[in-house]
């Protein structure tokens, strides 16, 4: 096995996508194993690879890591994207948790019944424009810096650019009232590691389609 982190998940975004984003932003190459059958998933459980019988699974530094938050915290700390002290880390954690709440709505959107899609889209727009994006717009305006915490690139910045692009896919004009976030999006998208991740052929996954939804349900729904 190479020294690259190895990611095991379905061939789609889901809970693994922020891990892909963070590794890519840190300039770390990784390998992926895609689950396609329930048998593959059950074998991982039987082998003892999944502590809580859940994926994502990330094999890194001799560990088999599960639980998305723990994985992301480890990667952020390992690659110096987690602040310089406890106060900065707490701020990054708060920003990340807020973004994760918004992304949870995006995550569940493809699995909603057709009749609920419009209502769910309205909810995403309302939360993004009234609860979450205003926070980051205010932070960037107040300190006048390029990044969210101490003017240093961090996990929080990676999570935010991922969220902005994910919401824009569904609501293209969502940033129209947020000039600071518009500028932030341009800055982040032009950082070399992120720019590379946004190019065609990168490990970044496309928006979930019906095939992805069917695969997830086939593997994980009893």
Automatic annotation (TrEMBL):
Tell me the superkingdom of the source. Answer: Eukaryota
Which residues are listed as membrane-spanning?
Answer: none
**Annotated GST C-terminal domain residues:** 85-209
Molecular function via GO: glutathione transferase activity
Pfam families documented for this protein? GST_C_3, GST_N
Q: What class of enzyme is it?
A: transferase
Q: Which PROSITE patterns match?
A: GST_CTER, GST_NTER
Statement: the UniProt record of this protein carries the keyword Phosphoprotein: no
Instruction: Specify the GST N-terminal domain's residue ranges.
Output: 3-83
According to its UniProt record, the EC number is: 2.5.1.18
Q: Name one GO biological process term.
A: glutathione metabolic process
What does the sequence similarity comment in the record state about its family? Belongs to the GST superfamily. Alpha family.
Q: What is this protein called?
A: glutathione transferase
Q: Which organism is it from?
A: Ciconia maguari
The UniProt gene name for this protein comes to: Gsta3_1
